[in-house]
Every structure is written in structure tokens, then in C-alpha cells.
Amino acid sequence: MSLQGHGGAGASHAGVAKPAPLPASPGKTHAFSRLAGTGPAWTAVGTLVRNQLLRLRTAELIRRAGGLALAASRCRVSKSTLARYASSNPDDAECFVPIDVVHDLERYAGAPLVTAELCLLAGGTFVAHPVMPPCRQDLLVQLAAQAREQSDLTTAICLAVADGVVSRDEAALALLEQEEVLRLGAAMRARLMLIVEEAP
Q1: In the structure, what pLDDT confidence band is assigned to residue 11 with cuts at 50, 70 and 90?
Q2: Can you list the alpha helix ranges (DSSP code H) found in the chain?
Q3: What is the chain's alpha carbon radius of gyration, rounded to the nearest angstrom?
Q4: CA–CA separation, 77 vs 68, rounded Å?
Q5: What is the dihedral of CA 112, 2, 18, 59, to 10 degrees?
Q6: pLDDT per residue over 154-181, tens digit each?
Q7: How far apart are CA 115 and CA 111, in angstroms?
Q8: Hey, which residues does 13 pair with through a beta bridge?
């Protein structure tokens, strides 16, 4: 499983200024900070983390939809308004991309970038439904992928508890593996559901 960073502070794509990167402790990926958005411990810090994640995804969505000018032609808002949705300017702190604009741009971007992040922040995982019924080979490939990820999760947890103390970084790593197991499990469910729904 691989993780990709979002770029450094001040980086931009097609004229879209990216927000500053999330603060991280040594050995910790920003994905672990999604925990700040769950449960009763939601705080101002958690809100800041959530907002940064959404702005990062919005900036990437605009870039992949062709940049500010082209993206603006593909939705109902102007270039300047789109730029505000991805801006780190304090004046734009309460300005977020509307869901209909997200839907329009994700169609052109070819990936549900903001939608997937919202799913993660809500404690879930976005899984696209297969467009065609899976064949026997598809199911076997999917099953093998699930087995590999489950093995990785088992290894991560066993290593974490080996010394009797589970550190924050060890828990973060196990969390990432667990997210991947859930994603693959949801994908398998979607494939099986499609077979059930289309069976004669």
C-alpha cells in the first residue's frame, strides 16, 4: 500500500495555491490525523485538520479537472470563486466548495477526490460500484488482494503489541492497514451484490 503526499507549502497547480501541509510528528502520516474528526473529542484543532484536508483535496480536484480556467467552464462558479475554495487565506476560511460543484468537477477529474475524503472523515470508505458483473477471475484476484492486506494488518498489529505497548505511530500504521482492508472488503461486497442483483 502506498501513500502520496500533497506537496509542500506554497506549492500550486494551474494557478491554485495549495494550503499549508498538515503538521506531522516523526513517522506519522497525515492520514492518522483523521482520528481528530471522530467521536466526542472533536475540537478546534480537529476542525482545522478537517478543513486543511478538504482544501487539499479541493485544490487537487481543480488541478485534475484542468486548472482554474477549464474547471470554471465545467461548473457553475467563476475562477476566482474556485480559487477561494482551495485558498489558505484566512479571509477564505469559511468558504468551501458546494457539493454540486464537487460532483461536476469529479466527473471531469475522473476520481471522487473530495467525496472520498468526506467518506474517510465520516469514518467510512468510498468504493465505486463495478460497472460490469465480475467474472470468476475478478473475484479470485479480489480475494487474493484482501488476503494480502489482512496479512499486512496482522503483521502490523503483532509488531505493535510485541513489546506490550502500542505507540501512536504503530497504531497509525495499523489504522492505515485496516482502512485498506475495509476498502477491499467493501469492493468485494459491491461485486457480489452486483451478481445477486443481476442474477436471473
Answers
A1: very low
A2: 44-64, 68-73, 79-85, 99-109, 113-121, 136-161, 168-198
A3: 19
A4: 10
A5: -10
A6: 999 999 999 999 998 898 888 888 888 8
A7: 9
A8: 16
